[in-house]
Amino acid sequence: MTKLLTCIAALLSLFLLSSCVTQTLFFTESDIGTSLNLIDNPGFAPNSLDPAKSLKHWSLHTEPALADSSPVVIDPKVFQDGGTSLRIDASNRSVMIISDPFPVRRYGGYYLRSWLKTDSPDPPNIYLRFIVFREDGKIVNRFRSKSAVKLDWSLATLSAGFIRPGARFGRLAIMIPPFKEGSVWVDNSGCFEVHGFQID
């Protein structure tokens, strides 16, 4: 429980901190090959009909914190793949969706992605963040990328590697700043180990 609270506190601080490493590697969909998706429930299949309990294997955080209805719902009508997506409706809140932890190797090269679309006339940029932790929950590395959202489904991607010693697990965080009109949809997210760096 202490490790979980440490991780959540560290992730929440990312709203205010911008000391992430921008991507210096470049992997693509073609690099995935037979690699397994390390993220559970990448297509946001519902866990419950209750919106407050429906996000299985993901956590939701908003700034300011929720005091009324959530701007985030599972949408069975609009999706890139699999029959559901996550819809974020316009609000005055920043929204961060965080995956459950998955194993990370120091010498792995990782390709992370999310499919995005919008119907907003003035959509926000979306940020993908890959946060890597030690066993005790302390952050080892932070990587980020910024993507524009379009009317049709398009890929937001992040490549990461050269991870520092002590890495044990990672999380994908998808960050959506406040926006005034329409919705943003997120679907078919993933993290794939696509490369192994040679060990000296």
Q: Structural class given helices, strands, pairing? A: mainly beta
As a percent range, the share of helical residues equals under 10%
- Describe the largest sheet: 7 strands, mixed
**Rounded mean pLDDT score:** 86
CATH class descriptor name = Mainly Beta
Q: How far is the N terminus from the C terminus?
A: 37 Å
Form type: globular
Q: Please provide the ordered H/E string of secondary-structure elements.
A: HEEEEEEEEEEEE
Radius of gyration: 16 Å
How many DSSP-defined strands?
12
Unreliable stretches, pLDDT < 50, 5 or more residues? Answer: 9-18
Please, how many domains? 1
CATH architecture designation = Sandwich
What is the overall number of helices?
A: 1
Could you name the CATH homologous superfamily? Galactose-binding domain-like
Description:
The chain has about 200 residues and is mostly beta strands. The chain has a single domain (about 1-195), classed as Sandwich (Jelly Rolls). The protein has one helix spanning about 1-10; strands spanning about 20, 60-65, 70-75, 85-90, 95-100, 100-105, 110-120, 125-135, 140-145, 155-160, 170-175, 180-195. Strands 1, 2, 5, 6, 8, 9 and 11 form a seven-stranded mixed sheet that branches. A five-stranded antiparallel sheet has the order 3-4-12-7-10, with no helix packed on it. It starts with a helix and ends with a strand.
